[in-house]
TrEMBL record:
Pfam families: Peptidase_S8. This is Subtilisin-like protease 1. Residues 45-257 form the Peptidase S8/S53 domain. Residues 301-345, 353-369 have a biased composition (Pro residues). Its main location: secreted. Gene3D superfamilies: Peptidase S8/S53 domain. Residues 71-93, 178-208, 274-378 are annotated as: Disordered. GO terms for cellular component: extracellular region. GO terms for molecular function: serine-type endopeptidase activity. Belongs to the peptidase S8 family. One of its GO terms (biological process) is proteolysis. It is found in: Secreted. Secreted subtilisin-like serine protease with keratinolytic activity that contributes to pathogenicity.
Length: 400
């Protein structure tokens, strides 16, 4: 005689998306580069919530099918939209119907970077904390993924906030950075508990811009990735910013399919991945490229979590070119190596889409300022909680 949990069994089927719009989708479900279809389990991230900690998201974009909502604006600019295009692009890769990996996951937009793609450390920390609390109240942190396609110079406050989110059960995918240097010099990429992502090109080489080193956990497609743009349609961008959402989307997919929690996801990604990356970079401990299981004889098997018993209630549910190129084209030249173009965090990246007209606050998209309202005092907050006076340290989105 034996006793085991009475688990719930569901029907799962394989779905094939042919002629994918972005090579990255096909690459993560096939053993070799060059494929043009994405094969995935029909569970597709259902029941998982992904937090886009970024420049905001066009939550009304058709690719999100109503599964995206506006969460919080920590930039405190009264502009509840994605004026950059960066956050919409990364979110499309995570959960979009056409461009995304976890096609049934929900998405919450958390704006921590302004329309120029930069923002202070304090706002990013506030965005992380807001996301953790929101997840706790809406389905639980163990069913939540956070994507951070951003970074800047080393910050103990930012690394600590990221680590605390992981401790609460969330999975964090973090861009390694685009300086072709050791990612240990960047935050939050240098935080050991997050999953730090390097970028790969179509031939499985490390993208020329991608950071490297001991902090790298895994690689994902990041060069010339096509995804959603604000206002509708798509655009192509490159950067570790584009690699990290592939990992976040696949994390949501595996969490739904296998019932694993955030703390186990990065190791599971390494198990399913393929040793494909050439020239991973000095001191990089891995050459593993993410894969959803298609490279190793098929998709992982569903492994649903046990159904809660009546006596144990479940968790609550709920310098300086004057004109940038056209969308999809690189900026011309790099007259000052290492210096960003005006309004663009990293040189060499595809031009962002023109921003749509500002959207006034509505009941569906209320402006969410820092705690304390529009008169929030950054200096007092920073001194009180972090003991320093450097809240003005700026962080940027990691797109090239």
């Amino acid at each position: 005689m034996f006793v085991e949990p009475d688990t719930i069994v569901s029907v799962h089927g394989k779905v094939e998306q042919s002629n994918v719009p972005s090579w990255g989708l096909a690459r993560i479900s096939n053993p070799q580069p060059g494929a043009d279809s994405y094969t995935y389990d029909s569970s597709a991230g259902e029941g998982i919530t992904v937090y886009s900690v970024d420049t905001g998201v066009d939550v009304n974009h058709e690719d999100f099918e109503g599964r995206a909502i506006w969460g919080s604006n920590q930039v405190n600019d009264g502009d509840d939209r994605d004026g950059s295009g960066h956050g919409t692009h990364t979110s499309g890769t995570m959960v979009g119907k056409m461009y995304g990996i976890a096609k049934k996951a929900k998405l919450v937009a958390v704006k921590v970077l302004g329309n120029d793609g930069s923002g202070p450390t304090s706002g990013i920390v506030a965005g992380i904390n807001w996301s953790v609390e929101h997840a706790r109240q809406n389905g639980g942190t163990k069913k939540a993924v956070m994507n951070m396609s951003l970074g800047g110079s080393s910050s103990s406050a930012l690394n600590r906030a990221a680590a605390q989110a992981v401790e609460q059960g969330m999975f964090l995918s973090v861009a390694a950075g685009n300086d072709n240097q050791d990612a240990q010099s960047s935050s939050p990429a240098s935080e050991p508990s997050v999953c730090t992502v390097g970028s790969s090109a179509e031939d499985d080489s490390r993208s020329s811009f991608s950071n490297w080193g001991p902090a790298i956990d895994i690689f994902a497609p990041g060069s010339n990735i096509v995804s959603a743009r604000p206002g509708g349609g798509s655009q192509s961008m490159s950067g570790t910013s584009m690699a990290a959402p592939h990992v976040a989307g696949l994390a949501a997919y595996l969490m739904a399919l296998e019932g694993i929690s955030g703390g186990a996801v990065c190791d599971r990604l390494k198990e399913l991945g393929t040793s494909s990356i050439t020239d991973a970079g000095p001191g990089t401990p891995t050459n593993v490229l993410i894969n959803n299981g298609g490279a190793k004889g098929g998709q992982p098997n569903p492994n649903p979590a046990p159904a809660p018993s009546p006596s144990q209630p479940s968790e609550p549910q709920q310098p300086t070119p004057s004109q940038p190129g056209q969308p999809g084209e690189p900026f011309p030249g790099e007259p000052f190596p290492g210096e960003p173009f005006p309004g663009q965090p990293f040189p060499g990246e595809s031009a962002p889409a023109p921003a749509p007209a500002p959207m006034p606050p509505t009941p569906q998209h209320p402006h969410t300022p820092y705690p304390g309202g529009d008169n929030f005092d950054f200096d007092s907050f920073w001194k009180k909680y972090f003991g320093g006076e450097h809240w003005r340290k700026m962080f940027s989105s990691f797109w090239n």
